[in-house]
Specification:
The structure holds two protein chains of two kinds. By secondary structure, chain A is mainly alpha-helical. Chain A is about 70% helix and about 5% strand. Helix content of chain B is about 80%, strand content about 0%. In chain B, helix 1 (about 1-55) runs antiparallel to helix 2, helix 1 packs antiparallel against helix 5 (about 110-145) and helix 2 (about 60-75) packs antiparallel against helix 3 (about 80-100). Classes of the chains: A mainly alpha, B mainly alpha.
């Protein structure tokens, strides 16, 4: 597969996952509003979307500052040769991608890693660890930063914000539903059930199961979106640099390095590689994969090598 | 009557839309060009400093330094797009050679000043390559739009001219498409 095909595939996957999110939200909201509250206007659903959206919106507007602050990032220093190289590489890639140059930060950590944040290309920041600058050669650094710039170009932060908003709304609706089911107020429900017959009963069972499992399902969907974005960003990096092997070699070095020290759980998914190096991320089983923010690194390397093969 | 007016109105709106998208593309081409221009100037400024530093160590590369000086002078006086492409293209080749040649002089690697210059050199060359790629992409988009129906009618009416690719020696326009 070439990088365009991989990007397309992961774009489709992202759209599909967001549609599943929306379908769950609509289903929970529909039952809640029309069967429990007998509203003709989906008041609760809109309220839930509003609250979920508001939380996500704050993260969207101020998220970059919070993240950069939490990892103690500082602006890259052009006097330092290594950091100057980082600045140069990011400037080069911004030209290649036709993007404004993002703000460039460095964080002190011996483990090689990097992330991008910011709500749109005009407000984007990229950050590399000192470990990354010390361990990578110029080409590998280019591969890693091209991956980050692809996140910026594809507006992945916006996508993840949307996912967070939908997950938040589903969580709220599910919580209301659970309370209603546990604590009665079933008058309305019973009368509707007898009208709907067995089909109504099945829908009601699905509804209860969804209400209980919703937070977990929402989390799993969000993780799936995150993994799809990682694959797409790897392909985007290959497209920008025309050098997938450099990123593959960088990922191999990252895989062999010790985990990062002080990384807050809220920002872990932003990094190019899962910063805690949890063993579960590297397992191949479907079950292990479901719970990982990132695809297994050896799979990403294999895909990049496949791209290089196709490209040469 | 009212349908006729609606049709005319829709047609006018469509024309305005095409006109605006042509203007937008033309501005993009211009911006992409100024991006290259900045990088080429940087290259011209960087060369004397770099050559002076390397000269002291790499005494056997006299020929290369002369080539660089020659094409730099040509590039600075180039007016037309063809002249610019010609001289800058040769200069690009020479600079790539220089990047390769300095690897043979380990004493240079110990010179902090040189390491900084080398990083600037590599970066500027990359920026020129990427900026040229981006510019030629934009030119291709713009030229395609000008020549394809129905936007070609508007383009002719308001005198939108084809933009020129920045081609290095040995390249032809249809090669640039697959860049």
């Amino acid at each position: 597969m070439d990088f365009y095909a991989i990007q397309e595939k992961n774009k489709r996957r992202t759209i599909f996952l967001i549609m599943v999110f929306t379908a769950i939200l609509a289903f929970l909201g529909y039952i809640l509003d029309f069967y429990y509250f007998n509203n003709h206007f989906p008041f609760m659903t809109i309220l839930a979307i509003f609250i979920g959206g508001f939380q996500a919106f704050i993260g969207y507007m101020a998220g970059d500052k919070m993240v950069l602050h939490s990892v103690k990032a500082r602006p890259a220093n052009p006097e330092d040769l290594k950091e100057k190289q980082l600045i140069n590489v990011v400037e080069e890639l911004s030209i290649a991608a036709g993007l404004p140059t993002p703000r460039i930060y460095v964080m002190d950590d011996p483990s090689p890693n990097a992330f991008a944040t910011g709500r749109d290309p005009e407000h984007a920041s990229v950050c590399a660890t000192t470990g990354l600058l010390n361990m990578m050669n110029r080409e590998e650094l280019q591969g890693v930063m091209a991956h980050e710039l692809t996140h910026v170009r594809e507006r992945d932060i916006l996508t993840m914000t949307m996912v967070a908003a939908l997950a938040g709304a589903i969580g709220i609706l599910a919580a209301i539903s659970r309370n209603l089911v546990y604590f009665g107020s079933g008058r309305r429900r019973r009368s509707r059930d007898s009208e709907g017959g067995s089909a109504g009963l099945i829908i009601f069972i699905i509804y209860i199961v969804l209400a209980i499992l919703a937070p977990i399902i929402a989390r799993l969907l969000a993780l799936a979106v995150s993994r799809a974005r990682e694959y797409a960003a790897d392909a985007g990096s290959a497209e920008l640099t025309r050098n997938p092997l450099a990123l593959a070699s960088a990922l191999r070095k990252i895989a062999g390095a010790p985990p990062m020290k002080h990384v807050n759980h809220g920002v872990a998914h932003l990094f190019i590689s899962e910063p805690y190096k949890k063993r579960i991320t590297e397992k191949d089983s479907l079950w292990a994969n479901l719970w990982a923010t990132h695809p297994p690194i050896h799979k990403r390397i294999a895909l990049l090598e496949q791209m290089a093969h196709k490209y040469s | 009557m009212i349908w006729f007016l609606l049709a005319v109105g829709a047609a006018v709106l469509y024309l305005i839309y095409i006109y605006n998208s042509l203007v937008k593309l033309r501005i993009r081409v211009k911006n992409a060009w100024s991006q290259i221009d900045v990088q080429l100037k940087r290259r011209h400024d960087l060369i004397p400093n770099l050559v002076n530093t390397v000269k002291g160590y790499a005494k056997h590369e006299k020929e290369l330094f002369e080539t660089i000086a020659k094409y730099r002078a040509q590039a600075q006086n180039a007016k037309s797009m063809r002249e610019i492409g010609e001289s800058e293209g040769h200069l690009s080749e020479a600079m790539q050679k220089l990047i390769a040649v300095v690897e043979n002089y380990p004493e240079l690697k110990a010179n902090e000043n040189f390491l900084q210059l080398q990083e600037e050199l590599v970066s500027t060359e990359n920026k020129i390559a990427f900026a040229r790629q981006f510019y030629n992409d934009m030119v291709m988009k713009y030229n395609t739009k000008i020549q394809s129906f129905p936007s070609n009618i508007i383009a002719n009416m308001f005198n939108f001219k084809k933009a020129e690719f920045l081609l290095f020696p040995g390249e032809r326009e249809n090669v640039v498409v697959n860049f």
